[in-house]
Design goal:
Layout (H helix, E strand, L loop, with lengths): L3 E3 L5 E3 L4 H16 L5 H13 L3 H36 L1
Antiparallel strand pairs: 1-2
Protein backbone atom coordinates (compact mmCIF):
# COMPACT_ATOMS: atom_id res chain seq x y z
CA UNK A 1 0.00 0.00 0.00
CA UNK A 2 1.35 3.41 -0.96
CA UNK A 3 2.00 6.01 1.67
CA UNK A 4 0.47 9.50 1.47
CA UNK A 5 1.85 12.96 2.17
CA UNK A 6 -0.04 16.27 2.32
CA UNK A 7 0.24 19.64 0.65
CA UNK A 8 0.01 22.85 2.69
CA UNK A 9 -3.71 22.92 1.81
CA UNK A 10 -4.09 19.45 3.32
CA UNK A 11 -4.57 17.59 0.04
CA UNK A 12 -3.32 14.02 0.28
CA UNK A 13 -0.89 12.77 -2.37
CA UNK A 14 -0.34 9.04 -2.73
CA UNK A 15 3.34 8.25 -3.14
CA UNK A 16 3.08 5.73 -5.94
CA UNK A 17 5.86 7.15 -8.15
CA UNK A 18 3.53 9.28 -10.29
CA UNK A 19 5.35 12.61 -10.63
CA UNK A 20 2.59 14.10 -12.78
CA UNK A 21 0.03 13.44 -10.04
CA UNK A 22 2.19 15.41 -7.60
CA UNK A 23 2.57 18.31 -10.06
CA UNK A 24 -1.15 18.33 -10.85
CA UNK A 25 -2.07 18.37 -7.17
CA UNK A 26 0.29 21.26 -6.41
CA UNK A 27 -0.99 23.20 -9.42
CA UNK A 28 -4.62 22.60 -8.46
CA UNK A 29 -4.05 23.59 -4.82
CA UNK A 30 -2.14 26.76 -5.70
CA UNK A 31 -4.69 27.72 -8.35
CA UNK A 32 -7.50 27.40 -5.81
CA UNK A 33 -5.62 29.28 -3.08
CA UNK A 34 -4.06 32.03 -5.19
CA UNK A 35 -6.49 32.33 -8.13
CA UNK A 36 -3.56 31.69 -10.51
CA UNK A 37 -1.61 34.53 -8.88
CA UNK A 38 1.33 32.57 -7.50
CA UNK A 39 4.99 32.54 -8.28
CA UNK A 40 8.24 30.71 -7.79
CA UNK A 41 8.25 31.20 -4.01
CA UNK A 42 4.88 29.52 -3.47
CA UNK A 43 5.79 26.59 -5.70
CA UNK A 44 9.17 26.26 -3.99
CA UNK A 45 7.52 26.19 -0.55
CA UNK A 46 5.15 23.42 -1.67
CA UNK A 47 8.02 21.35 -3.04
CA UNK A 48 10.02 21.86 0.15
CA UNK A 49 7.06 20.77 2.27
CA UNK A 50 6.46 17.63 0.20
CA UNK A 51 10.16 16.70 -0.01
CA UNK A 52 10.47 17.04 3.78
CA UNK A 53 7.75 14.39 4.16
CA UNK A 54 9.48 11.83 1.90
CA UNK A 55 11.90 9.12 2.92
CA UNK A 56 15.29 8.90 1.17
CA UNK A 57 14.04 5.96 -0.93
CA UNK A 58 10.92 7.87 -1.98
CA UNK A 59 13.06 10.88 -2.90
CA UNK A 60 15.31 8.68 -5.05
CA UNK A 61 12.32 7.18 -6.85
CA UNK A 62 10.78 10.59 -7.56
CA UNK A 63 14.11 12.07 -8.64
CA UNK A 64 14.64 9.20 -11.08
CA UNK A 65 11.14 9.62 -12.51
CA UNK A 66 11.59 13.40 -12.76
CA UNK A 67 14.91 13.01 -14.56
CA UNK A 68 13.34 10.53 -16.96
CA UNK A 69 10.47 12.92 -17.70
CA UNK A 70 12.89 15.82 -18.18
CA UNK A 71 15.05 13.74 -20.51
CA UNK A 72 12.03 12.79 -22.61
CA UNK A 73 10.97 16.43 -22.84
CA UNK A 74 14.53 17.44 -23.79
CA UNK A 75 14.65 14.79 -26.51
CA UNK A 76 11.20 15.78 -27.84
CA UNK A 77 12.17 19.47 -27.98
CA UNK A 78 15.43 18.57 -29.71
CA UNK A 79 13.57 16.47 -32.27
CA UNK A 80 10.98 19.23 -32.82
CA UNK A 81 13.80 21.72 -33.50
CA UNK A 82 15.36 19.36 -36.07
CA UNK A 83 12.00 18.85 -37.78
CA UNK A 84 11.33 22.60 -37.80
CA UNK A 85 14.79 23.29 -39.24
CA UNK A 86 14.28 20.62 -41.89
CA UNK A 87 10.92 22.17 -42.78
CA UNK A 88 12.49 25.60 -43.22
CA UNK A 89 15.30 24.13 -45.35
CA UNK A 90 12.72 22.41 -47.55
CA UNK A 91 10.88 25.72 -48.08
CA UNK A 92 14.08 27.47 -49.23
Amino acid sequence: MARTIKTSAGTAIELDGDVLAVLETISRDLSRQKALDYGFEEVDREFQLLVAQMTPDELKAYLKESLFMSFNRFENEKLAAVVKKAGRAKED
